[in-house]
Amino acid sequence: MANDKKQGPIRYGMVGGGRGAFIGGVHRIAARMDGEFVLVAGALSSNPERAKASAAELGLDPERTYASYAAMAKAEADRPDGIEAVAIVTPNNHHFPAAKAFLEAGIHVICDKPLATTLAEAKKLAGLVEKTGRVFVLTHNYTAYPMVRQAQEMVAGGALGDIRLVQVEYPQDWLTEDISASGNKQASWRSDPKQAGAGGATGDIGTHAYNLARFVTGLELHSLAADLDAFVPGRLLDDNLNVLLRFKARGTAPAAKGMLWASQVAPGHENGLKLRVYGSKGGLEWVQADPNYLWHTPFGEPKRLLTRGGAGALASANRLTRIPAGHPEGYLEGFANIYREAAAAIRAARIGQPPPHDVIFPTVHDGVEGMAFIEACVRSSRNDGAWTKL
Amino acid sequence: MANDKKQGPIRYGMVGGGRGAFIGGVHRIAARMDGEFVLVAGALSSNPERAKASAAELGLDPERTYASYAAMAKAEADRPDGIEAVAIVTPNNHHFPAAKAFLEAGIHVICDKPLATTLAEAKKLAGLVEKTGRVFVLTHNYTAYPMVRQAQEMVAGGALGDIRLVQVEYPQDWLTEDISASGNKQASWRSDPKQAGAGGATGDIGTHAYNLARFVTGLELHSLAADLDAFVPGRLLDDNLNVLLRFKARGTAPAAKGMLWASQVAPGHENGLKLRVYGSKGGLEWVQADPNYLWHTPFGEPKRLLTRGGAGALASANRLTRIPAGHPEGYLEGFANIYREAAAAIRAARIGQPPPHDVIFPTVHDGVEGMAFIEACVRSSRNDGAWTKL
Amino acid sequence: MANDKKQGPIRYGMVGGGRGAFIGGVHRIAARMDGEFVLVAGALSSNPERAKASAAELGLDPERTYASYAAMAKAEADRPDGIEAVAIVTPNNHHFPAAKAFLEAGIHVICDKPLATTLAEAKKLAGLVEKTGRVFVLTHNYTAYPMVRQAQEMVAGGALGDIRLVQVEYPQDWLTEDISASGNKQASWRSDPKQAGAGGATGDIGTHAYNLARFVTGLELHSLAADLDAFVPGRLLDDNLNVLLRFKARGTAPAAKGMLWASQVAPGHENGLKLRVYGSKGGLEWVQADPNYLWHTPFGEPKRLLTRGGAGALASANRLTRIPAGHPEGYLEGFANIYREAAAAIRAARIGQPPPHDVIFPTVHDGVEGMAFIEACVRSSRNDGAWTKL
Amino acid sequence: MANDKKQGPIRYGMVGGGRGAFIGGVHRIAARMDGEFVLVAGALSSNPERAKASAAELGLDPERTYASYAAMAKAEADRPDGIEAVAIVTPNNHHFPAAKAFLEAGIHVICDKPLATTLAEAKKLAGLVEKTGRVFVLTHNYTAYPMVRQAQEMVAGGALGDIRLVQVEYPQDWLTEDISASGNKQASWRSDPKQAGAGGATGDIGTHAYNLARFVTGLELHSLAADLDAFVPGRLLDDNLNVLLRFKARGTAPAAKGMLWASQVAPGHENGLKLRVYGSKGGLEWVQADPNYLWHTPFGEPKRLLTRGGAGALASANRLTRIPAGHPEGYLEGFANIYREAAAAIRAARIGQPPPHDVIFPTVHDGVEGMAFIEACVRSSRNDGAWTKL
């Protein structure tokens, strides 16, 4: 085993992602795209029948189709050809216990965001990752779009000067009306505090927006003031959040400020994640729906439209680029980049090495930060929007 | 005189707007565009030499070129062919005394925003307008773009259902560096509290954004939480404002929320005024730099791109439209629409009538509301961003 | 008279442009915008009653309201305060005789395009302009948008290297159905060969597209191959033209090639004039509906979005710019630029000088070239699209 | 074998696509994305050393790594676990002989475009496909973007009425300078008549544009007039083509007309494939670089922006959609759709059935049509752009 394990594709299993789920299928395509992973085990649903049927559809060996992640973690850890990694793609409330089980079984974890349902859980998980030394990848997938990497490299390289302003938003419209009532599975668990945690839109998409802003700017948040609403009558979790941000100062420059808007009730927006960053020397703009473009204005010069793979593309973008400029890459390629980075980290772990220095992925610490964001938003909003430290 | 006064173009004078000024020239073109106004008098600069030279350039009768607005108000009121209206286009600190002088002289006033430098002044002016019965037009010019009128009509007609969210922003980049130091006249007075009042970007462009949001939605603001900054060292007034908005509830629907961002330090933005409104039935988006378009998404249907003069254009837009769809109208036409509306009101006043019902223009009350906004922003920001009623 | 004539605004008259006309109103606004012209006489319609009513609406002196251009040319030439210039805004078939009458009366002419209904007429007019020495301005208004001037200056300055390709198009959709049947005045005369000449869309908008391409590139056309169609049953003139272009070679570089498409039956296009030019060193793109932008790609570098009044704007654009970047100028400002240039030429003529060197306007020679284009298109199309020299 | 062959993934081999090739990697990702194909054999390069090294990189069994497609076709046909399908991704001149070899060996073929280097070869291949009954898929991949399918369904359903105009273009800029001289492999073979055939840009991208227009409109071409150029000195094949199109009439409506432009010397364009179709009732526009959008204007109504997966998406688009609206799919997903359709056809062939009725892919007949297009373009251009039947 040792040998082929060091060279062959990575055997992985999946928790959640049965029929009717959205994100599980995304993970599977992402894992498959570069041929780095092979799916060999699953606990695809908490409903045993659905778990079985889903596994059959995916061609999983019935013997490696499990009724629970606990059973799966145990059994796979015991197999000589057991999984090296697991992808956890359940509703939020299962992230923590499942991740814990696999980490303790010595299995690397690729986990959906938000990391947990409470900050306390998240911190426990961070401790466990440190203790076990396993690779832990949180799928804040937007950070792996090539032009987001380009933005990150540009900011880090000083192209914008001192960062002053961050404007980030993630509007959607799919919860404009009360569709959980009509049985929409995606909507139901996301607006159920027991499954989703304390944040609705805050946890589901606000964390993505926040993570993206942090990733590109490298800034740390000092405090926030948040106004959370549930506009649809009867909805238990927020479907809109308006947040002011104050970042920690760096050096002698004034501390950066920002605004974050996330909404599931903004008609006309499908997945309108947009990040804008402004500094003393220039500005950047990136839009998820059109991810192959990055607008850059050096102050006092004409706007430039940078393209993935095109003139001006930097190393950090090019290493995650598969096809030529003008042929669009999309969401699945961005997601697959997370898996590609995870593969590099796991392959390094096979031989006892840390990930190569240019490999970047969201970690359990990003997950802790995300949970701190959610809890601060909820706390601030309950406290009439008072400024609240993370 | 009486007769021709009832039919001929409206004689007007100008206060401010001498050489090197920006907005004065805009007013003159706007007044000229439809042939409704003729400029016959001026106190174009507080610098007598510049006032004289500017007047000569404009072909004004030297006899009607005044050294001060006080002199002008008095002299013109006494002439049988005196001005019927005055355009006040000075730095903010002169708005109040000049407007007062002309109102008291019985002359209609077209005044730049913000209305004054304090809310107290603004309220006095409102009282004076009521007392004198003169027409008072505040040049919140963006409200007169045809597609803004369309947006207003659509919201009023219920196309968006209950309004839930308002996102408005007005980013610029011209103050990214400290250009007042190098003698830029426009920059200098705008960042001088004595001339501009308590707000920098807040007064200059924040009020435009706020006014536009109010105009289109018809909502009234309940309170705000504001974070004002001056990012450029040494700048005395804010060059950036991040604001959360809470509107007053209407009927049984949840109160609408909003965010307002205005900045003069956002590289890549020239005059990026943008308004987005979302309700229970749909969303709208309008961008000042591309003003002939209005995006409309009825929830659950494809996005529609409405165009000025095109299919779907409503009466309120069409009455301010001069040329066919696809031939862009711009800022000057929008500004001229304010003058066109002012002319209609002044012509009605000539015969003792109120303005026709479909004539709309920003009034002294909008100016009071704008000053209340500025003061609330400053107060909130000084109070660490606390929620502050208007 | 002499003195004030040398300094005051230019007195002009108008032929055509009565009630219900579109382009007459545009000319009047354009003439008024910069205060350079004052309208004092008119023969506004061939229908005497409409002529009279239209003149009254415009406040013209009844004494200077004429029943025909012939009468107007004669009477105005005899007046000491007679018009210095005339704007001819009639259907095409009146351009030639009216222009001839005014030129012969010593009056400068501002004339709508196309210049005439035949190339022969056009050439006669060119001779007459030369003979009389009068200023003759053809309102190919698109050439006066600031960013078109910028494009022209960039090409002339070598920013694109050797020009290889020109792609120009002017799609509209207003004649998709047979609206002339239902009495649309604009549609009726444009599709009547007696009034419009041999070209339908070719004369109305094809000439604009062709003129714009010539203006920006400075290239001369060698030959063309044209496919003209009238897609709407019963329409007598073309409503669509597909044309291949071969330009004359310059120096040792290969001759440039091009394509021109103009259509009145392309649903979704209002006035979709677009020009793209490609050379050995870069490319440009300009779109009339969004005229404040100019895309420029230096080969091998990122695309740049140049803006009117913004960073990178050149002298030729800035001299025709009225307001700051980000505040859009539109069609009327572009049109007014033609009048501004005409005013400069006429003022120079007042003192016996040629126009200043930086003053640019389309001349009678552009009109001759336009008529040659129309006739070549029609000839080529009738000859099964054979390559046809101009 | 029989059983698992009927259910398991499809075993396929690849001809071409070794190190340094672009399109081979695309095919492999596309084949992998949905888990329908597994790569088990290859003749990856005509250079034996590169073939071997490339195969090793891909983890191919050395025994199934072949020095030639001839050897591969023979050996694989003889294996009980031999490949069911082959992907041919070589320079054009190998398409015909390789496809012939595999068809004759009873193996399904997925082949890059253009189909061959001559029309005669193409027709022979069509005969062979008919004779062998094998599945033959030509990778005109753009036809498998969901919004292209949507466009096709809309046109077929009459949403545009009678089609009048087709405007299609495919500009690139990568051959603006002479990069084949500097050893660019992609550029070298594409501009070598021996490897590419008679067309340069015509074969490489002109055929894509033509195929896309045919696919969406369902129109057949009657004749064309083409102007082909090689703007870069010394280039042997065309790098730009300007073409007028005349389609065959259908019913009583006038025959549709069109224009096709393809270029490799248009700075600013990466892969600017764009299709616009106009009919008596509406217009459509689709752009490859932003493939999740489809503009639709029903004549007389506002423009609509249809989105993949969004409101208004039709069945033909939805069946090829993997992820929600607003999460962009790209070029690889479009390409993978071709493989998904190929898989459906091959699975049907396994049980002796024709492909399901809703499965659509470009066939050998599209390849014949493409070769006819290339030859007609070359013939017309050599004949001074004369109208030429296909």
Provide a descriptive summary of the structure in words:
- Four copies of one chain form a homotetramer.
- Chain A has 390 residues and is α/β, with parallel strands linked by helices.
- Chain A folds into two domains: 2-134, 3-Layer(aba) Sandwich (Rossmann fold), CATH 3.40.50.720; 144-156 and 169-278 and 308-322 and 369-389, Dihydrodipicolinate Reductase, domain 2 (2-Layer Sandwich), CATH 3.30.360.10.
- Chain A is 36% helix and 21% strand.
- Chain A has 13 helices and 14 strands.
- The first copy, chain A, has helices at residues 2-7, 23-33, 48-57, 69-78, 95-104, 119-132, 146-156, 185-190, 193-196, 201-217, 315-318, 331-350, 364-382, and strands spanning 10-15, 37-43, 85-88, 108-111, 136-138, 163-171, 221-229, 240-247, 257-263, 274-279, 282-287, 293-298, 303-307, 388-389.
- A nine-stranded mixed β-sheet of chain A has the order 13-12-11-10-6-9-8-7-14. In chain A, strands 2-1-3-4-5 form a five-stranded parallel β-sheet, with helices on both faces.
- In chain A, helix 5 links the parallel strand 3 and strand 4.
- Chain A is globular and about 65 Å long.
- In chain A, 63% of the residues are buried.
- Chains in contact: A-B, A-C, A-D, B-C, B-D, C-D.
- Chains A and B meet through strand 6, strand 7, strand 8, strand 9 and strand 10 of A and strand 6, strand 7, strand 8, strand 9 and strand 10 of B.
